[in-house]
Write a structure and sequence with these properties.
Elements: E1 23-27, H1 31-37, H2 42-63, E2 67-74, H3 82-105, E3 109-113, H4 121-134, E4 141-148, H5 150-166, H6 177-182, E5 194-197, E6 216-219, H7 229-241
Parallel strand pairs: 1-2, 1-5, 2-4, 3-4, 5-6
Helix pairs in contact: 1-2, 2-3, 3-4
The structure holds farnesyl diphosphate (FPP).
C-alpha cells in the first residue's frame, strides 16, 4: 500500500507564496504544562518540544520560508531548578549531535546566538562544530537563541560601539540603526517578519527586543509540543491578513 503524501507538505493553496514571512521567530512556550497535563515530568515536554521544532523547521523549508529563529533558553531560565537546566543543556547537546548528519543532508545552516561562553564547555564544542560544519549549506537558516537576553544583547552592542568610538575608529555621528544592528548577535540576519508565541502568553520575554520592532505578533493557546503544520498554517493565514504599514499610511 502506498501512503498518500501529506497535502500540507506543499504550501496550502489558500496561502500566497509571494507574501510569506522571510524570517519567522518563535517563543516555544508551554512544554512544562503539556507534560503536566499528561502526568509526565516537565522535561518530557521539552523532549516533545524538540520534535515540534524539527517539524516547524521542515515545514518552513517545505513552504519556502528562508529563516527560523527559536528561543531555546533565556538568560532568565538559569533560575529554574538545576535538574531542569541540566536536562536542557544535555538535551541541546544530544540533539545537535544526533541531528547534524540530517542537517547536512537537508542543507540547514545552523547558528546559535546568545552569551554562549557561559554554556557548558561540551555544549559549546558541539555548537562550534555544528556551526562550522553547516556554514556553507545553502538551505534554510536556523538560528537558536540560547542563553539569550535581548537587553544583554543591546548592552553588549553599546559597549562594543563605545569602544570603537573611544579608539577613534568611528565618530558618534556614524552610529545609526544599520551600524547598531551589525553589532547585535543577529548581524546579517533579516529581522523577523512574524513572531509566534505558543501557550497564550502575551509577552516578549526579553526576546529579540531590537529585531522585533516591526514584526507581526501571533499568539496561540496551543502548547508548544502540539504546534504542528496545521497550527503554523493558521499563523500564516493570520499573518497574511495583516496590513503591514511600517508606521506609514497607504496612499
Ligand atoms: C518553554 O516551555 C520551553 C523552554 C524553556 C525550552 C525550549 C527548548 C526546546 C523545545 C528544545 C530545543 C532544542 C534545540 C536543540 C534547539 P516552559 O518550560 O516554559 O513551559 P511552561 O510555561 O508550560 O512551564
Amino acid at each position: 500500500m502506498t501512503t498518500q503524501p501529506s497535502l500540507l507538505q506543499q504550501l496550502p493553496p489558500d496561502l500566497d507564496a509571494n507574501r510569506l514571512p522571510k524570517q519567522v521567530a518563535v517563543i516555544m512556550d508551554g512544554n512544562g504544562r503539556w507534560a503536566r497535563q499528561r502526568g509526565f515530568p516537565r522535561v518530557m515536554g521539552h523532549r516533545k518540544g524538540v520534535d515540534a521544532l524539527k517539524g516547524l523547521l521542515r515545514c518552513c523549508r517545505d513552504w519556502g520560508i528562508g529563516g527560523l529563529t527559536a528561543y531555546a533558553f533565556s538568560t532568565e531560565n538559569w533560575g529554574r531548578p538545576s535538574e531542569e537546566v541540566d536536562f536542557l543543556m544535555t538535551l541541546f547537546e544530544r540533539v545537535l549531535q544526533r541531528e547534524l548528519a540530517e542537517m547536512m543532508t537537508e542543507q540547514v545552516r545552523i547558528r546559535f546566538v546568545g552569551n554562549l561562553i557561559a554554556l557548558p564547555e561540551s555544549l559549546q564544542s558541539a555548537i562550534a562544530q555544528a556551526m562550522a560544519q553547516t556554514a556553507d549549506n545553502t538551505g534554510i537558516e536556523f538560528t537558536v537563541a540560547t542563553n539569550y537576553g535581548g537587553r544583554q544583547e543591546i548592552i553588549s552592542a553599546c559597549r562594543a560601539i563605545a569602544q570603537e568610538v573611544q579608539k577613534g575608529e568611528i565618530t558618534p555621528e556614524q552610529v545609526n540603526e544599520e551600524l547598531f544592528a551589525q553589532h547585535l548577535y543577529t548581524a546579517d540576519l533579516p529581522d523577523p517578519d512574524l513572531l509566534i508565541r505558543t501557550s497564550g502568553e502575551m509577552r516578549l520575554s526579553n526576546f529579540l527586543l531590537w529585531q522585533l520592532a516591526y514584526a507581526e505578533i501571533y499568539v496561540t493557546d496551543t502548547l508548544w509540543p502540539d504546534f504542528d503544520r496545521a497550527a503554523f498554517h493558521q499563523a500564516l493565514q493570520s499573518y497574511q491578513q495583516r496590513d503591514r504599514r511600517f508606521g506609514k499610511i497607504h496612499q
